[in-house]
Write a structure and sequence with these properties.
With about 375 residues, the chain is an alpha/beta fold. Helix content is about 30%, strand content about 25%. The chain has two domains: about 1-180 and about 320-375, Quinone Oxidoreductase, Chain A, domain 1 (Alpha-Beta Complex); about 190-315, Rossmann fold (3-Layer(aba) Sandwich). It is globular, with a radius of gyration of 20 Å. It binds nicotinamide-adenine-dinucleotide and zinc ion (2 copies).
């Protein structure tokens, strides 16, 4: 079938993106779903900082590519062997397609599936196929096994979770990355318990979900840190007990003074080395940093090794919030329904495909949380 898609041919184009157009909206051909695959009409797709990092070129991608990894849509056709979904079903997409049988999947860690990771690097679906091509026949790579910056996508059955049709798809989309990553970092990777103190460094779409989850889990105190004073105001409104401006030269000292020497759990959700240094600095002796931010692929974080040992600090990575999507998406939707994950309040407007580049200018300016692309208007 023919559809419109936003293709990235080149990484690292200059700003403003509204002028340089790193994403080129074009008519392309989409193959039908192969065995175990599903055709989805993309109803809503969030603009995430990971997409921005791909546009900036600080995280390399196979080119040309259709990116977009946070979304929700409607099933339009099921490939052979897909018997548990039918046209019309609503789904949230999952940006790590898991195989179900590698050493990570069998240990309950589908978020770090080795087959899913290999397919992502190769720009294919889990089957090895590429389903999008230009009208001249050139094959286009898939971003995260999904390619959601398009009107439709063909993806593996394991790259989605069916949801209740009562949930607005514009809110549902945000669960596909920001909620799983932010809430999952707090509730899964950190396994936060009620009454435990926590800090969140970096209050974007991902960090605000970490904050919501900390409030839902009964964390106390909840420290929120960002370079942008406006994000601090929102964090206070959404349950942070204390906020600190990361650009204050003595920010880490202020946090330590307010918390009797730092926090036991610090979540880093900014994706910069400076933020990681802040997170490490405000972690108490015996505490842990859970890092979900994704800086440039070659960025290195360093620390005093001796102090790591004598302070017994721990550094933990968190990919897709250590989620098992079939388990956690329903769990997080339950919190959302009860008002504990007010994900809808993160929406900073809607965009058609034709405005996607300007949307990334706004994300780079740090003035928005989650902008929602509606590729079908
Ligand atoms: N681990 C995962 O699975 C996963 C999934 C999605 C996104 N990410 C990554 O998470 C990060 C956040 O994504 P997002 O979409 O929420 O981004 P965003 O741009 O919406 O938010 C980033 C926030 O960090 C703040 N910030 C920047 N530098 C800071 C510093 N030095 N100290 C404190 N705050 C600082 C910004 O002001 C902004 O509020 C990105 O690096 C993204 O690539 C990781
Ligand atoms: Zn993302
Ligand atoms: Zn696997």
């Amino acid at each position: 079938m023919r559809m419109q898609a936003a293709i990235m041919y080149e990484q690292g184009k200059p700003r403003p993106y509204a002028t340089s157009k790193p994403l080129v909206v074009e008519e392309v051909e989409l193959d039908g779903p192969g065995p175990g695959e599903v055709l989805i009409e993309v109803a809503a797709a969030g603009l995430c900082h990971s997409d921005l990092s791909a546009i900036e070129g600080i995280r390399p991608r196979p080119l040309p590519i259709v990116i977009g990894h946070e979304g929700a849509g409607i099933v339009r056709e099921c490939g052979a062997g897909v018997t548990d979904l039918k046209p019309g079903d609503h789904v949230i997409t999952v940006f790590v397609t898991s195989c179900g049988s590698c050493r990570y999947c069998v240990r309950g860690r589908p978020n770090i599936c080795s087959s899913g990771n290999a397919a992502r690097q190769a720009g294919t679906l889990l089957s090895g196929a590429k389903r999008i091509s230009r009208l001249n026949g050139e094959r286009i790579n898939h971003g995260s096994g999904l390619s959601l910056f398009a009107q439709f996508c063909v993806v593996n059955r394991r790259a989605m979770v069916k949801i209740d049709k009562a949930i607005p798809l514009e809110d549902a989309a945000i669960f596909g990355c920001a909620v799983m990553t932010g809430a999952g970092a707090v509730l899964n990777t950190a396994g936060l318990e009620a009454g435990e103190p926590i800090a969140v460094v970096g209050l974007g779409g991902v960090g605000m979900n970490a904050l919501f989850a900390a409030v839902a889990a009964g964390a106390e105190p909840i420290i929120a840190i960002d370079t942008n004073p406006e994000k601090l105001g929102l964090a206070r409104q959404w349950g942070a007990t204390h906020t600190f401006l990361a650009t204050d030269p003595d920010c880490a000292e202020q946090v330590k003074a307010a918390t009797g020497g730092g926090l036991d759990t610090v979540i880093e959700t900014a994706g910069t080395i400076k933020a990681m240094e802040m997170a490490y600095a405000v972690t108490a002796r015996g505490g842990r940093v859970v890092s979900a931010g994704l800086p440039a692929a070659d960025a290195k974080f360093s620390y005093l090794h001796g102090a790591l040992v004598s302070d017994e600090k721990a550094l933990i990575g968190s990919y897709m919030g250590s989620c098992v999507p079939e388990r956690d998406i329903p769990r997080f939707l339950g919190l959302y329904r009860r008002g504990k994950l007010p994900v809808g309040s993160l929406k900073s407007g809607f965009l058609p495909l034709s405005e996607i580049n300007a949307g990334f200018d706004r994300l780079a300016d740090g003035i928005v949380l989650r902008q929602i692309l509606r590729p079908n208007g």
